[in-house]
Amino acid sequence: MRYVIPLGVIYAACALVFALSVVRVTGGSGMQIGTNYVPIQAPAGENPSTALSRFGGTLYDAYDNPFTGVSYPGRVHLVRFEQANHVGICGGVAVYTAHSTCPAEIQAFAATVPGRWWVLGNELNLTGQDNAARTPQDALTYAHWWRTISGAILTGDPVAKVTWGSVWNFNSASAGNACCVNGSDALAWSIGAYTAHYGSAPNMAAVALSVYPQDVSFGQADAQFAAQINAASAYAASLGKPLVVPEWGVRRRNFGDCSLLAQSDAQRSAFTTTSLNTMASKGVLWALFFASHDQVPPCTGDTIGAWLINADGSLTAEGLALQAFAAPVVTATATPTRTPTSTPTPAGPTPTRTATPIASPTP
Fold first, then answer.
1. Any bridge partners for residue 19, and if so which?
2. Distance (Å, rounded) from C-alpha 2 to C-alpha 320?
3. What distance in Å separates the CA atoms of residue 273 and residue 267, rounded to the nearest whole number?
């Protein structure tokens, strides 16, 4: 939301000259926003920078190959705890064997992109993703891998910010789906295994959480989303760490045929706005919406989520909500040219900066 601030106040005996300062804010909280960049149905010439500029984002992620994004300072690098169904990188060659990313290559690359965020492992509690911490025994293997890769990154770039691997929903049942090992268990097992084996807690910059409420009619989506953020932020705080959200969003299409769900722009905008404000209120450092662009076609189980930017470059209801959250706020600082002879009339209370739902045409 943009706030209009009076630029003139009448004094009894003199005039004031006001100096304006335009301040870039992120939802009034310092939380950075961005997207998972998947430009399958993107406008011609789109790149991560143009995509972020459309809604005011500052960070983006891209999957499977962490050795990209040198030209884009907002890149968050994801290193997969590689499984057979995901690409690993070793010697610059894509391979499909487990845990294949080479520490030496990671170290050298990290030195070329100083100060960036790194997420080591994607959704550790899901079999379809990195499946790295579904049992206490698996968790120790992941802990060893995390220590090796994080050490390589921090040797190459001592100011890098390395998170623990993300988990999909902190408590899957309260997200509306009891399909999976809870993210809370995966975190407790893997961080506990690391601490027990190495004698100290991992040197991580943040706890990472993917958040996807399962209610696509939006009757319970806000409560499901808040339950995940509230629990995960409390857990992160118990470790003395902040929370980051490498993925969040909601399903937009049906399974099977990928047809659009019966959701209104107003519902999608309200959910996006409420979610942003929930995360900001809990001190989330940054959150990346999944996804930047529509991913259909093709139609698969991974392409059914909402998106921010249409193929013509316009913003969806979700994109407009993010844009409102990131909108600049104008503040005025009074610089009197001479002493006023009477007290100026108060300008009124300062409005709070929160995102406001904005509906857009359905793409």
1. 333
2. 13
3. 10
